[in-house]
Design a protein that fits this description.
- The protein has about 200 residues and is mainly alpha-helical.
- The protein has two domains: about 50 residues, no CATH class; about 140 residues.
- The chain has five helices and five strands; from the N terminus they run βββββααααα.
- It has a three-stranded antiparallel sheet, with no helix packed on it. Strands 4-5 form a two-stranded antiparallel sheet.
- A hairpin with a 5-residue loop joins strand 1 and strand 2.
- Helix 1 packs antiparallel against helix 4, helix 2 packs across helix 4 and helix 4 runs antiparallel to helix 5.
């Protein structure tokens, strides 16, 4: 069998193979020197007239410590993603997230506060309340109370969950092993659940 290689303009092998000794080489192929096979291509270069050996770049293999560090980094990143997703899901149970929606909630709260504080409020002065009366509540007073309750609940959950989230982020960043990352994640989820169900407190 005759071993051959195909090379680029710099003489670097781009592929190769073998043909029976009696068969012609493929177009553009260059016969390899005696004793060399396709498995040796990474250490050869064609000068245009002859094959010369070239240093073979060692294949980098991470050490066990480097592998462990990489796995830990991935576990931390995945834990951060899960923490943020759980917090977002919790907050969405009280208020739809989004910049535009947040502005609407703020306007609703402002109208509710002003309506409740007024001695003789005129519903014509409160367009958001006026538009929703009869949909979410029978009266403007009831609707204002609902909006205030929802706003207060959302703020409480937002502030408490943000504190829990930041504590988890710090703990994840400082975790020295995947087991510690998982323990932080478990503790975070449990703490987050207690915001909705205080009776779960140990």
């Amino acid at each position: 069998m005759t071993a051959f290689a195909l090379v680029n303009a710099d003489g670097m092998p781009t592929g190769g193979g073998t043909v029976p000794s009696w068969a012609p080489l493929p177009a553009g192929a260059i016969e390899l020197p005696p004793g060399k096979g396709v498995e040796d291509l990474c250490g050869l270069r064609w000068t245009g007239t002859d094959w010369v050996e070239r240093p073979v770049e060692p294949v980098w293999t991470p050490s066990p410590e480097e592998q462990a560090a990489g796995l830990l980094m991935r576990a931390r990143a995945e834990a951060v993603t899960r923490v943020n997703a759980e917090v977002s899901a919790l907050r969405a149970r009280f208020q739809t997230e989004g910049a535009g929606q947040a502005e609407i909630y703020a306007d609703k709260r402002a109208e509710a506060v002003a309506f409740v504080a007024a001695d003789a409020p005129d519903l014509a002065d409160f367009p958001l309340l006026r538009a929703e009366v009869g949909v979410s509540a029978e009266s403007a007073w009831q609707l204002a109370q609902i909006w205030l309750w929802k706003s207060d609940s959302a703020r409480t959950i937002r502030d408490a969950s943000e504190a829990v989230r930041m504590q988890a982020m710090a703990a994840i960043a400082g975790a020295a092993s995947i087991d510690e990352v998982e323990a932080v994640q478990w503790a975070f989820t449990r703490t987050l659940n207690t915001l909705l169900h205080p009776e779960m407190e140990p």
